[in-house]
Amino acid sequence: MLMLFLSMSVMAQKKVIAQAQSFVKSGKELAKAEKMMSDLLTDSANRSNVKIWVTLQEAVRKQYEQGNEKLYLKQKYDTAALFSTARKLFLICEAFDSIEAMPDKKGKVVFKHREKNAEWLRTLRPNLYNAGTFFLRKLDFGNSWDYYDTYLDCARQPLFETYHFLDSDSLMPTAAYWALYSAYRQKQPERVMKYRQLAETDTTHLDNILQYVAEMQLLVGDTAEYVATLRRGFDHSPSHHFFFPRIIDYYNSRTMTDSANVVIDNALASDSTNSLFLFAKSSALLNARQYAQCIDITQKLLAVNDSLPEAWCNMGLAYYNQAVELEHSSTQRNRKKRKAVNALYEQSRPYMERFRSMAPAQQTKWVPALYTIYLNLNMGREFEEIDALREKLRQ
């Protein structure tokens, strides 16, 4: 009974294959033929059946050829469907090639289809790149990744080993960049890293690549690599908007003042008039209570760019902090000391008032300072107004 059952099963399988081959030969019901063969391959016992693979491959190939012909004749056809069929062919042929790579009963490996399949797919391969671009423009990053990934993966597939795509295909670095970008837009760190090394050989996009990589490293909590990538990005492009501020924020948040100063000084060495670098130096000096140097560098900053509210704030605080420290430096009170303190408050006042006018919403920064300034300078009307604002902040 078992032998009878097996015999009937084999007969049924042959009948299914014959029917699918008939569909392929006629060029009709190709999708049905594809499904029939795909269903057979779900049974692991059929995975080594060459006839099934060949029939499946031909069913999908003819679907591609028919679709391509319609597009060539400018007949209505779904471009996305054609791309999907092309990618499917690569996946089928690569899987089939791995089956052929298995030794036979005599321990031999014979590739009857590799050369033919590889040659034909090589001519088809640019469509994978074009498909990636097609979906990228539609902001369909899932599909764009899939196509770029299949395009790039050909380089490691034994099926295409004679073509040495990494060396012979000049589009590989660009494809790697767009694959990385597609993965980045989907917030998929593992995929971002998959082609990172290859993407970085596309030096025209290196700043963007390092930014995307750094963001993914931060997303997964790899702080050490995040900082290393920021430093590399900064070394490559000191003036890039992404790297410098984040390095400084990282060091400042951990009170790594020396490390922050090294980066800032290197930045200023590369561009001594850059507003961002000058402001970072101004803030570092202010935090280090090096007020004279802070005033000097902030004056340079304001000469270059006087539209930064925080620069006016730093200037005001450099005088204000000196006044506060001098006032509390000892319990001794005398006219000379009072005069020096008030002189510093007077110097601070125009900068803090300018900061207030430029950043009215940042009351927590300018209200306390102006309150103290107006109080010490006996500015009654101004003091009453700022005192009212101070009370509102307390509520």
Descriptive labels:
0% strand; mainly alpha; 395 residues
Summarize the helices and strands and which ones pair or pack.
Elements (H helix, E strand, L loop, with lengths): L1 H25 L3 H12 L8 H23 L6 H22 L13 H11 L1 H12 L3 H13 L11 H4 L3 H14 L3 H6 L1 H4 L6 H14 L3 H14 L6 H11 L3 H14 L4 H13 L3 H14 L4 H19 L7 H24 L4 H14 L3 H15 L1
Helix pairs in contact: 1-2, 1-3, 2-3, 3-4, 4-5, 4-6, 6-7, 6-9, 7-9, 9-12, 12-13, 13-14, 14-15, 15-16, 16-17, 16-18, 17-18, 18-19, 19-20, 20-21
Can you tell me about this structure?
This protein is mainly α and 395 residues long. 75% of the residues lie in helices and 0% in strands. It has 21 helices and no strands. It has helices at residues 2-26, 30-41, 50-72, 79-100, 114-124, 126-137, 141-153, 165-168, 172-185, 189-194, 196-199, 206-219, 223-236, 243-253, 257-270, 275-287, 291-304, 309-327, 335-358, 363-376, 380-394. Helix 13 (223-236) crosses helix 14 (243-253) and helix 20 (363-376) packs antiparallel against helix 21. The longest helix has 25 residues, at 2-26. The termini are far apart. 34% of the residues are buried. The mean pLDDT is 92.
- What is the H/E string? HHHHHHHHHHHHHHHHHHHHH
Q: Any idea what the shape is?
A: elongated
On the 0-100 scale, what is the average pLDDT?
92
Please, how many helices?
Answer: 21
Helix content bin:
over 70%
Note poorly predicted spans.
none
Radius of gyration, whole Å: 35 Å
Share in β-strands = under 5%
What structural class do the secondary elements suggest?
A: mainly alpha
**Strand elements, count:** 0
Largest sheet: number of strands, sense, barrel closure: none
Distance between the termini: 90 Å
